């Protein structure tokens, strides 16, 4: 156990302690932070809610860390964990402005929604569970919710000057009065216009101008205003770590390993039988499969994803057995041996699934899902090897290794031009005559703009059926997609390097 863990109270769920009376101490830094927080919320509304996970969100993440840097100073770079999460989050945000694959964009958004709060709460300087402890997620979630909802009055305290006299005292009433006046005018002017035709004609140009230029802006400002107290409260809590109350937990005792051993014996025996039957298909070839009424491609595809799911179940089972079994006696030795056997069988199942997928790819070529499947199997094999090490070293911190490996693996696959490789493989197979059918619709619309450069290698006069069931030449379809790319690049919030490169193609 490291020094950080020794400083923590005994395990159990963490809950922020609450004061009976909240007194907000507002410094000049907080007074500057409030309008900056509103500007950030306005940027977030203008990007994420109006344009989705694109380049606008990249700008929002950079602005978020700029805000944290101004408010927290060098705290942002004090620890190894903080520096790593800073690099990872900025890299994930950068991918949104580089690529145009919506699968990666959606998952990168989910990753940022998880990692940004974890990073922010870790900056408060409190004594938290280490980042590699799974229970850390629950602890920081509790602190995140407490920061968002437990300090709503801090924004009002920062907006209301503490001085009893002077012009600063009138700032808040001035702002509230202006906001109230605008809200009433927005309601009353349309009502009066509907009640009198002459007034409607006199104010027609003004109402059209306001509707065109200010309606969206007002709604965005209102949403940003609603979000600001929550965000400010979270930032306010980062400089004032909330003490944690932890309930005591009993020391780890474990359970009798005999039950786990029985389960492992049954599962391992089943997998041995399964691998024996499968080996006939792997080594028997097409003739053996033909006798069973199966084609090579059908056999290669059948049950693949089930095998991946089984591997996940096996990984969970062996980790639970090693972690929770009482580490003494013959039952514990049996659990370790059976866990090692299950690990080997799981690797063989994963290897079999990879081989079957390779057979299928040889027939039908690459696709985005097949490429991601290869990546997923590689990551799963890495996790199984880490689990195998834990079998022989039970005190090995599995999550401490797996979490960084998972993040690194995800960043690596984001850097690989998967869509480009898929399009290149499909076009090469078509041009070589290996595949007579080319799914242009899939390459054009289901993948990113990275596929256009490969489709331009084909004869532009070839007729294909478009997504709207019309028959068009390939050149016209490519021109339409390049026009879509130019439209995305016209707005900075939806700009991407992939779309920009595609918009310049075919010139």
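^ structure tokens above, recovered residues below v
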């Amino acid at each position: 156990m490291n020094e950080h863990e020794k400083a923590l109270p005994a395990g159990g769920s963490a809950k922020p302690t609450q004061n009976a009376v909240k007194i907000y101490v507002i410094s000049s830094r907080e007074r500057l932070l409030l309008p900056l927080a509103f500007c950030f919320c306005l940027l977030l509304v203008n990007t994420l809610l109006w344009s989705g996970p694109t380049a606008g969100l990249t700008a929002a993440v950079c602005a978020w860390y700029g805000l944290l840097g101004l408010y927290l100073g060098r705290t942002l770079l004090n620890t190894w964990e903080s520096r790593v999460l800073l690099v990872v989050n900025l890299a994930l945000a950068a991918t949104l402005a580089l690529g145009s694959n919506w699968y990666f964009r959606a998952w990168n958004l989910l990753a940022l929604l998880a990692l940004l709060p974890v990073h922010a709460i870790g900056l408060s300087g409190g004594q938290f569970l280490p980042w590699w402890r799974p229970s850390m997620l629950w602890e920081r979630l509790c602190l995140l919710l407490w920061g968002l909802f437990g300090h709503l009055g801090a924004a009002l305290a920062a907006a209301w000057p503490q001085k009893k006299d002077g012009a600063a005292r009138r700032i808040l009433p001035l702002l509230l009065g202006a906001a109230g006046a605008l809200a009433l005018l927005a309601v009353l002017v349309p009502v009066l216009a509907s009640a009198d035709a002459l007034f409607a004609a006199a104010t027609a140009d003004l109402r059209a101008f306001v509707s065109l230029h200010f309606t969206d802006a007002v709604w965005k400002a209102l949403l940003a205003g609603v979000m600001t107290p929550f965000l400010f409260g979270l930032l306010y809590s980062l400089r004032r770590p909330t003490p944690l109350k932890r309930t005591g937990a009993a020391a780890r005792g474990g359970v009798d390993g005999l039950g786990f051993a029985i389960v492992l014996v049954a599962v391992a025996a089943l997998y041995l039988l399964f691998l024996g039957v499968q080996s006939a298909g792997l080594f028997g070839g097409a003739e053996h499969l033909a006798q069973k009424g199966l084609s090579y491609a059908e056999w290669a595809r059948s049950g693949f994803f089930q095998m991946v799911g089984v591997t996940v179940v096996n990984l969970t089972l062996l980790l639970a057995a090693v972690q929770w079994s009482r580490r003494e006696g013959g039952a514990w030795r049996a659990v370790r041996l059976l866990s090692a056997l299950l690990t080997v069988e799981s690797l063989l199942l994963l290897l079999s699934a990879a081989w079957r997928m390779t057979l299928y790819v040889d027939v039908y070529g690459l696709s985005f899902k097949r490429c991601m499947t290869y990546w997923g199997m590689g990551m799963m094999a890495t996790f199984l090897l880490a689990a195998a090490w834990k079998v022989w070293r039970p005190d090995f911190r599995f999550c401490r290794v797996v979490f960084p490996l998972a993040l690194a693996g995800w960043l690596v696959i984001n850097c690989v031009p998967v869509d480009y490789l898929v399009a290149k493989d499909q076009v090469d197979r078509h041009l070589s005559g290996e595949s007579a059918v080319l799914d242009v619709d899939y390459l054009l619309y289901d993948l990113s703009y990275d596929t256009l450069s490969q489709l331009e290698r084909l004869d532009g006069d070839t007729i294909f059926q478009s997504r709207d069931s019309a028959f068009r030449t390939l050149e016209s379809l490519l021109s339409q997609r390049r026009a879509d790319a130019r439209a995305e690049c016209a707005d900075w919030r939806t700009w991407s390097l992939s779309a920009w490169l595609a918009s310049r193609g075919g010139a």
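The chain has four domains: 3-160+237-246, 167-226, 257-416, 426-504.
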